[in-house]
Amino acid sequence: MTFTIKSYINPMPPILSVSGLSKTYATGFSALKNINLDIEKGEIFALLGPNGAGKTTLISIICGIVTKSTGHVLVGGHDNEREFRATRQMIGLVPQELSLAIFDTVWATISFSRQLFGKPRDDAHLEKVLRQLSLWDKKDAKIMTLSGGMKRRVLIAKALAHEPTVLFLDEPTAGVDVELRKDMWNVVRELRANGVTIILTTHYIEEAEEMADRVGVINKGELILVEKKQALMDKMGQKRLLIALEKPLERLPKKVSDMGFALGQSGGQLAYSYDSKHERPDVAKLLSGLAAAKINYTDLSTQQSSLEEIFLGLVKP
Amino acid sequence: MNLLGVSAIFIYEMRRFFRTLFQSLISPVISTTLYFVVFGSAIGGRITQIEGVSYGAFIVPGMIMLALLGQSISNASFGIYFPKFSGTIYEYLSAPVSSLEMVLGFVGAAAAKSILIGLVILATSFLFVDVRIMHPFWMLLFLVLTGFTFSLFGFIIGLWADGFEKLQIIPLLIVTPLTFLGGSFYSIKVLPPFWQGVSYFNPVVYLISGFRWAFYEVSDVSLGVALGMTIMFMLACLTGVYWIFRTGYRLKN
């Protein structure tokens, strides 16, 4: 299956194009199976999947860290093996692990990253990156003295040191507290505003829900779905009508359960689930059914299923 | 070519050496002094000359080679193994740096460090014995070739190793015995014919012979053979490194 946005909608060629990509390890384990994926310039793409699904392997092949078995990867129209210099200069990678040279200072490590990517010294750019990530006052600190969240920021600073146009964030907020996570989301939004394409893997579904333009779901090495986030939620989202009861019920009368209601665990709430895309429930009829059964209620509310619930539904064995 | 990338790796590796400059340099100076005390004074008192060269001066090229081989291997193997161990290798592999450029950065720095140490040992030797360098060009050529070749060998060990203990196995079990048995402290001509024959299978014999010839014009094998064998070993190591990067063995798999 190939997932693309049609050219008549967006005439720009994709910034990243993966076709027929597979990876089989020497042990025979097939980590990726015929992946086809196009990423448009300037979008935020979230790649979701359970542990061991192949997210990191996919990113690692695109970045040149792992060799592929078959297929092609084009970044900005350049083949990532034959024209590796062009593609790698465009890419910044924030790995999942906190892999840092702990004896170095923050400034030394980001200067090293910039030079390694063949970029001449530019202290003003490095200062801008450090300030953006609230690391400027830590520039002379040794990495070993920093907290986990700060180390994560240093990894992002290293990835941005050579001014990439495509940024891969592999579980960027793993182990980061809520406040820091929100700061990072702001940084990501700012980068996107500056034209950087962002591909992130995450197991915080709220992160994808909060930031992504499109979502891809990978499971057991297969890309099982790519969809615009809102379209995915609209298409697959379940809605629930929640009714708070005046008095808790021990069990639901048969007439009411036949209407589609389910009793909440405490017995104080009724829930009616429906597909928001294909079904418009007759609320008046439902409520009159409750009145006929002499069930009084105090409040009504609706709840839309989250991306997490959709995701769990997709990867459920 | 990404020269900035090569220099980034080279400078980073050299900084590690200069951060611990005192330990890096004092250790070979102490070892050299001990060798002179043990071999030069104790044994040298009984063996006055070998092929017209005083025993103390005769062992100087061997001592330099001994340190050069050990330092080249340990510097290069640790240099590439540590990023693998700490996970920072991801940055090198995802950077626009070719395999050759990575080798130039890592192996160049490892060779430069070991050559510096070799020169420090040479300088220390002048304090103890009358060292003559009859062919400085050849001496430097052998020093650089050997430093680079064994740094390549160490680089392969570092790429191959998947634990700290494996970094030590080959230097400890193979390289050190070959160096001691390769004529560091004696001429293989003093051995019985059978062991002389066996010694010619030891590649270190050729390195030491060529190097010693550059000092005193005495050697166990001809200069051409010594140079040829050194270059052959270097090409074998280059082939090994090329294969590792091409296949991604223990690096990209």
Q: Could you please describe the fold and organization of this structure?
A:
Chain A has 317 residues and is of the alpha/beta class. Chain A is built from eleven helices and 14 strands. Chain A has helices at residues 55-63, 84-90, 106-116, 123-132, 148-160, 178-193, 205-211, 229-236, 254-258, 283-292, 307-315, and strands at 16-24, 30-39, 44-48, 70-75, 78-79, 91-94, 166-170, 197-201, 214-219, 222-228, 238-245, 261-263, 269-275, 297-304. A six-stranded mixed sheet of chain A has the order 6-7-8-3-9-10, sandwiched between helices. A four-stranded antiparallel sheet of chain A has the order 2-1-4-5, with helices on one face. In chain A, strand 7 (166-170), helix 6 (178-193) and strand 8 form a beta-alpha-beta unit. Chain A is elongated, with a radius of gyration of 24 Å. Chain A starts with 15 loop residues before the first strand and ends with a helix. The model of chain A has no long low-confidence stretch (mean pLDDT 85). Chain B has 253 residues and is mostly helical. Chain B is 77% helix and 2% strand. In chain B, strands 1-2 form a two-stranded antiparallel sheet. In chain B, helix 3 runs parallel beside helix 6. At the A-B interface, helix 2 and helix 3 of A face helix 1 and helix 4 of B.
Key terms:
heterodimer; A: 317 residues; alpha/beta; 33% helix; elongated; B: 253 residues; mainly alpha; two-stranded antiparallel ribbon; 10 helices; 2% strand
